[in-house]
Amino acid sequence: MSFLREAMLVAGKDLRIERRSRVALAQILPFGGIVVVMFAFALDAHRDQLPAAAPGLFWAAVFLAALLAIGRSFSVEEANGARDGLRLSGLDGGSVFVGKAAAIAVELFLLEIVLGVAVVVLYDVTFRGAIVLFLTALAATIGVAATGTVYGVLATGLRARDTLVPLLVLPAVTPVMLGATRAFSAALDGSTGDAWPWVQLLFAFGVLAVGAGTVAFGPLLEES
Asked: Distance between CA atoms of 220 and 218, rounded to whole angstroms?
């Protein structure tokens, strides 16, 4: 079985679990929405500052929701020895990594679309630079999903997993948050030329994260 085929099987499994359980719809999406609304109320007295703060607040909401998605991706395999079944399936560790990261990325990208609409409505943001915004979101999502998948399996099986994952993931994705925020700010200001270096940085980070995860995930899964 090809590497890509194995990755698609793992991604399909995780996405079917989420579709049937509706955890993403019932918990992750509402959580992200609450964070966006809370930020809007917190700055209500300074509404003229909301458009400038919107990119940072948007990505803060996305990253906080991503922690739930990452934790959920591995917690579903705790019951009934599902992780042992995954280890014994004969699937390549790299393909398992790509599949799980792809499933998380799909969930996050859909979340970003919904939160993006909410930010435009609540924060009085003028929508500009659609291509830059799309590429920024794509690159940042890949980076977050890949990094979160590596640290997620690293923390698997530990009693303090729920608190350890945020401590590991947030510092690692700080460059993504910085780059995505700066690229969004430049695009929304109409300065798309200033956004491209940040987009390139995000794609470089994503490529490195995927490459490192593909190599490291198999041994980490065996030790988890």
From this structure: 5
